[in-house]
Amino acid sequence: MQQDELKVLITSTESLMNDAIEHLHHELVKVRTGKASPSMLADLKVNYYGTPTKLSQAANISASDSRTLVIQPWDKSLIPVIERAIFEANLGVTPQNDGEIVRISIPALTEERRKDLVKKAKSLGEDAKVGIRAARHKGMESIKQAIKDGLPEDNGKRREKEIQDLTDKFSQKVDEMISNKEVDIMTI
């Protein structure tokens, strides 16, 4: 394996680890903290004239205050469809419509619910770490194979250390993200 190939290997390993971090970030946004955020409905799909469509492409979603989301559909006939999609998504909220817009009041979180959300966030963090370790394993296996194929062992060890350093860096980043989310969830 040439030096260029090793650099590509390290870069691709880092990219896989970065993907795990991006996925974690995307999932943590969905874990609600008792504050209204349009991102809570980011992945919600509605049946828009027979086509599953993201809610954000069929309506304007905004937070009118810290506890209320307002959904203003481009087409008023979508209001019942939006309400049904919110009920089916099992978000623990009840939509109310006034014929023009749909309002969602976000209830205050109980202490028990906050602890459950922290557990969920930690579980998501552990999933991200599993992805990071899988990327590390793949990179290490490639380096071991390169050593068998004639790469000098000291060079291989140096590359293994680079991958381990990346693993440590990304794992620490996951810990920081989870810690920040925990503080966010537990703050009343």
Task: Output the keywords.
four-stranded antiparallel sheet, 5 helices, elongated, alpha+beta, 6 strands, Gyrase A, domain 2, two-stranded antiparallel ribbon, 188 residues, Topoisomerase I, Chain A, domain 4, 2 domains
Describe the structure.
- With 188 residues, this protein is of the alpha+beta class.
- The protein has helices at residues 3-30, 55-58, 79-88, 111-148, 153-186; strands at 45-48, 51-54, 59-65, 68-73, 95-97, 102-105.
- It folds into 2 domains: 3-30 and 110-186, Orthogonal Bundle (Topoisomerase I, Chain A, domain 4); 38-105, 2-Layer Sandwich (Gyrase A, domain 2).
- The strands form 2 sheets. The chain has a 4-stranded antiparallel β-sheet with strand order 3-4-6-5. Strands 1-2 form a two-stranded antiparallel ribbon.
- Strand 3 and strand 4 (68-73) form a beta hairpin.
- The longest helix is centred in the C-terminal third of the chain and has 38 residues, at 111-148.
